[in-house]
Design a protein that fits this description.
The complex is a heterodimer.
Chain A lengths: L28 H26 L3 H15 L5 H14 L6 H21 L8
Chain B lengths: L20 E5 L3 H11 L5 E5 L2 H11 L3 E4 L8 H10 L8 E5 L4 H9 L4 E4 L4 H21 L10 H17 L4 E8 L2 H25 L6 E6 L2 E7 L3 H16 L13 E7 H4 L5 H17 L5 E3 L2 H29 L1
Parallel strand pairs in B: 1-2, 1-3, 3-4, 4-5, 9-10
Antiparallel strand pairs in B: 6-8, 6-9, 7-8
Classes of the chains: A mainly alpha, B alpha/beta.
């Protein structure tokens, strides 16, 4: 297992396409099993994020975003950390209209998570 | 080699006990999975807690060698737990590495000001994490080495002085008693002269083991040469006397290999916070226990004396009554035979 979080690599470019995103630890045998667990949980995490966003549960939403920000990069998905950090930065400013403020970021974040999930079937992840 | 656990508040991590305990406190299971994977292969035992409240309980149970602590958690947060750990005498020396996605310089500064050993930003990489963990554990091991007596493995005098300050503060804060015992092996010079220093060292090691065989909460230190000290938290002079009597009896009962006629005994002086007077300091407590030890030596050795004269009279009366009872039993037994 190699150290170092690669913020970008050939398989994990910061882009707005719908191409699957794969972990920068793709060929790392030591990471394989936990990346699989992480990927399996993504649909639930998307559902939880959308639910707390929809119900305006700001604290729950913040916590979910914060956890993904802290963990995403560690699993080799730097884009998750970057997008979550962007949302968290905006949430730090008290704002009654926070949902409108971050709607665009939220959509992008969900897209990234979906692309990460779509990378599940790329050789090496399963 | 089997791991050797030393008694007292801190478990020593040495060549004999090579598996340090690391406790990770983070409310994200994702992070626990990562830590487990990143640290597998490291020579450590990893435990986890998903809240600061649960984490604190585990700290008290496990007495870990290192804590990896997240900051941003619901309920008690990481800073609050860090403050609590640094305020507790039994937890303040455990190194804490803050692992957090709060990456502002102010958060780092606050953590270091509060006594954190290191700060690792999330997302972290494996090498950074390993280096941080190894560094903290290495420092902990070095600290332990400088506070341990090389021969017996007990805490040394320097640790004793530092620990007494903490225990007195703790006793005062919680209004609970604290006893101090000074123990000196009787005629140890003669043992060394007659049987050589190698055997003398063997005697010291054996007595150290007996002293450690008492209660887990007691802190046993080698003060100097053949003199030991025991800090007995939450213990008044009467309770301390019972503890010390058991130790004294155990020492006197040791059968020394190849020396059937040898009897090694020890004398003890005990005091507690109540018997010392108004000015309770490590120095006044040591002086009181040491003076009591002199009384024990003057009274014929192999006994326990306290700083309280009244208590000494009570104990002498109790010893006298015990002796009288055993004589009466013997007489009754002899009468039955005749």
């Amino acid at each position: 297992m190699q150290g170092g979080i690669r913020m970008q690599n050939e398989n994990n470019k910061l882009s707005h396409t719908n191409t699957p995103i794969v972990s920068s630890y793709l060929n790392d045998e030591g990471m394989e099993s936990i990346i699989r667990i992480f990927l399996d949980e993504i649909p639930h995490r998307i559902a939880d994020l959308q639910a707390s966003f929809k119900s305006s549960s700001r604290d729950d939403f913040c916590k979910q975003v914060h956890q993904l920000k802290g963990a995403g990069g560690g699993y080799g998905f730097a884009e998750i950390t970057l997008k979550a950090a962007g949302i968290e930065k905006k949430l730090r400013v008290p704002n009654a209209g926070w949902k409108e403020e971050i709607q665009k970021n939220m959509d992008e974040f969900i897209t990234v998570l979906q692309r990460v999930y779509a990378g599940k079937n790329v050789s090496g992840h399963v | 080699m089997q791991a050797k656990t030393f008694r007292g508040t801190f478990k020593i991590m040495t060549e004999e006990n090579p598996t340090p305990i690391v406790l990770a406190i983070d409310d994200s299971e994702l992070i626990h999975h990562l830590l487990k994977t990143y640290l597998q292969g490291e020579n450590l035992e990893l435990h986890s807690a998903t809240s600061c409240e649960d984490g604190f309980k585990k700290v008290m149970e496990l007495n870990p060698d290192l804590i990896l602590l997240d900051i941003d958690m619901t309920g008690m947060n990481g800073f609050e737990l860090l403050e609590k750990l640094k305020a507790g005498t039994s937890t303040q020396n455990i190194p804490v590495i803050l692992i957090s996605a709060l990456c502002e310089s102010a958060d780092r500064e606050k953590g270091f000001d509060m006594g954190a050993f290191d700060f690792i930003a999330k997302p972290f990489d494996q090498l950074e994490l390993k280096a941080g963990v190894r560094n903290a554990l290495r420092m902990k091991m070095l600290e332990h080495k400088t506070q341990r007596d090389g021969l017996t493995g007990l805490w040394n005098q320097s640790y004793f002085k530092q620990r007494m300050i903490q225990e007195i503060a703790e006793a005062r804060r919680h209004s609970r008693p604290l006893s101090l015992v000074v123990c000196d092996i009787d005629r140890f010079k003669k043992i060394n002269d007659n049987f050589h220093h190698q055997f003398g060292d063997f005697v010291l090691e054996k007595i150290a083991k007996i002293l450690l065989g008492g209660r887990t909460s007691d802190i046993v230190c080698r003060y100097a040469g053949d003199e030991f000290v025991l800090i007995l938290p939450s213990t008044n002079i009467q309770q301390g006397y019972e503890v010390v009597e058991r130790i004294r009896t155990a020492i006197a009962a040791v059968a020394w290999p190849d020396k059937p006629n040898l009897a090694v005994t020890a004398s003890f002086g005990i005091c507690d916070t109540a018997s010392v007077g108004e000015e309770v300091t490590p120095e006044t407590m040591f002086q009181a226990a040491d003076s009591a030890l002199y009384k024990a030596k003057e009274s014929g050795r192999n006994n326990v004396r306290s700083s309280s004269n009244f208590f000494n009279i009570l104990m002498q009366a109790r010893t006298f009554w015990g002796t009288l009872k055993s004589w009466l039993k013997k007489i009754q037994f002899q009468q039955c035979l005749s």
